[in-house]
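Structure ticket #2291
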Amino acid sequence: MNGFKQLYPSLKFTSGGSLSKNREKIFKAFCALWLIIAFLEFGQDYIRSILQGTTFHIGESLSYKLFWPLFIPFFMVLDISVNKIGERTKGALYLVLVIIQALFITLIHLVTFSLVLYGFSILFHDNPMTLLFVLYEKLSTRLYIALSIYSALSGIAVYVKHRRSQQKSQSEEKPKTITVKKGKSSVFVDIDEIKWINSDGAYLDIYTTHKKHVVLDSLKSIIKTLPSKFKRIHKSTIVNIEWIKKLESRGNGDYDVILDDGHQLRLSRNYTKELRGNLL
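Resolution: structure written out below.
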């Protein structure tokens, strides 16, 4: 895994620089896709040779199927480059450079593929194909396939970069602590330790893993300073969903929210949409 991280550092984008498990799974699935396509085409060649009664050359067949696995290293280059370009440019220029990059990588892919085929042609044929002929054939038959795929992958890479930038901005904008005044002094409360917040008139009761704090504030105001894991579940309650153990329906659209310590809160039917996709 350490070698994988060094080979593909752009996969590190979650907080603390840790490797995103979901992104790693997607990348592995991406690799498997091209290998499966190559294997299916290889099998197709073998079946065709049996049906037509011709000799099946394993090495030659595999060389032609290399077109698909080549998408793996070149996509890694494309993805890293999209991020590098994004660090230096923005707006229309950024998109233009990404498009040019997709075309450039497409051409490099096809040239590399043609060189491999030319090399195998020299090894396996008495009258090998010329490099110019191989380049012409692959550019005329595979250019639209490779360009379409790299264009789509560029779009995905740009979208992922945009989402990462949004997540990073949101993470930077949200504080890690909130200040609670205690008489003439102030106490910093770790946001991750907050379980729920309850409104009590003009004051808020902030319940953490250790104690309760009372502050002069409103739910409407404080929720704007909290991360997205804090959800409004009642007109007088905000909860940190990471501390929720389970939900129990009341049968009338309302729910009882059971926290990990057994404490019970009310989820009003008017706020159930806040937990859609998370717990409901």
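Closing remark: The beta strands are 177-182, 185-190, 194-200, 203-208, 212-216, 230-234, 237-240, 244-249, 255-259, 264-267.
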